[in-house]
């Protein structure tokens, strides 16, 4: 995939109406109060928005929020699948579920952050949105309603993409968390408008793209998380690029079992044991160092206050489960990143949500904070871990997209990036 894409700096935006795809899919309070509990994604969009407004553009921002069901029948079907009684599912309840995923609270927070009015549209491509977009002046910003309120959004419906594009002169993509999806607002609109990236996507392409295409060596990849199956493509792709691959988290027990180790009640994907052995053989053939845990912290149950002990890897007794890497493994892994040129980290080393089993993840985060290497955190749980543990400001780059950064590292083409104009 070509990472060298045109950005907002490469085009003249003065006097133009710009359709700007943001990622405003922010977490909301569970009590339906409309309170945003974390505005990081809104803050991350500000540099691109400010640049466009200051350079004379009229900004038509859009985003999805959650997973609304745009038709009553589909909503009933989904709720019934979750075990709800169809007799209790009314049209009023469906409308309430949509109202809870409105972008109105985002418009209010965005107005506070920008210290200027944000005009809110009542729909995406309906009469209200079209009228407000037509009246929009340079230096003003309009926010369309949740793009997923439209049936055609997730299907990348050309008619919806065309209707969105008709309101603007240019398309700017800045929602890295959504570029791995070919939706109407993330990819389809680029068929009808000149398309470039915003600063957020440019940064992701520079850092992750740079690390994959031309890393400062040695390149060390740290892969954790629960499942081998979710990281197959990443391991495979990194075996072609990395100098060292470190395996931690729940998926390490599948590697351990594949090599004849006892893993007790630990997380195990038995179907992926052959694959794990193939990866070990492939690493050896390519001269890539593949580091696996040498010891593990085990617990007698999955709980924050479980009894724990440290055992050698592959020697976990029945009734016990591995929840973190052990102290010897911590030392081995921290030594491996000391002299790295580039480190990519995706996935925690253990159950970091439990303080008693966060030591491995914390030690790796601390080691990365002290290295001279370019450190790239690949979104999702690893991003949450470094934020929670207080090391976020010590990392070179923290990706804003979990699924997108994972697919990026797999070497997959990202539809929301592929559609942008090449430099």
Walk me through what this model shows.
The chain has 423 residues and is α/β, with parallel strands linked by helices. Helix content is 35%, strand content 15%. The chain has a six-stranded parallel sheet, with helices on both faces. The two termini are 13 Å apart. The model has no long low-confidence stretch (mean pLDDT 93).
N- to C-terminal distance: 13 Å
Enumerate how many helices there are, as a single number.
15
Name the helicity range.
25-40%
| Mean of pLDDT | 93
Whole-angstrom Rg: 23 Å
How many β-strands, per DSSP? 17
Which strand-content bin applies to the residues?
15-25%
Going across the biggest sheet, name each strand in turn: 3-4-2-1-5-6
Low-confidence segments, given as residue ranges, are none
Q: Which shape, going by the Cα principal axes?
A: globular
The class by helix and strand makeup works out as alpha/beta
Q: What composes the largest sheet?
A: 6 strands, parallel
Topology:
Layout: E1 17-21, H1 40-54, E2 58-62, H2 72-81, H3 91-99, H4 104-114, E3 119-120, H5 127-135, E4 141-143, H6 158-165, E5 170-173, E6 195-197, H7 199-213, E7 219-223, H8 232-238, E8 244-247, H9 252-258, E9 262-263, H10 273-286, E10 289-291, E11 295-299, E12 308-312, E13 315-316, E14 321-325, H11 327-338, E15 342-346, H12 359-370, E16 374-377, H13 380-388, E17 397-398, H14 402-409, H15 415-418
Parallel strand pairs: 1-2, 1-5, 2-4, 3-4, 5-6, 7-8, 7-15, 8-10, 9-13, 15-16, 16-17
Antiparallel strand pairs: 11-12, 11-14
Helix pairs in contact: 1-4, 9-10, 11-12
